[in-house]
Amino acid sequence: MAWSKGKPKKPPAPLDEAKLYERALHALGRRMMSVAELKRSLRRRVEPDEAGEAKINRVVAKLKEYQFLNDTRYATEYTRLRQTNQKFGKRRVQSELIQRGVHGDVIAATVTPAYEDVSEVELAFQHLQRKRAKPPKDEKETARLAGRLARAGFSSNAVFAALRRLKADAAVLEALEAADDAPDSDL
Question: What is the pTM of this model?
Answer without folding.
Answer: 0.84
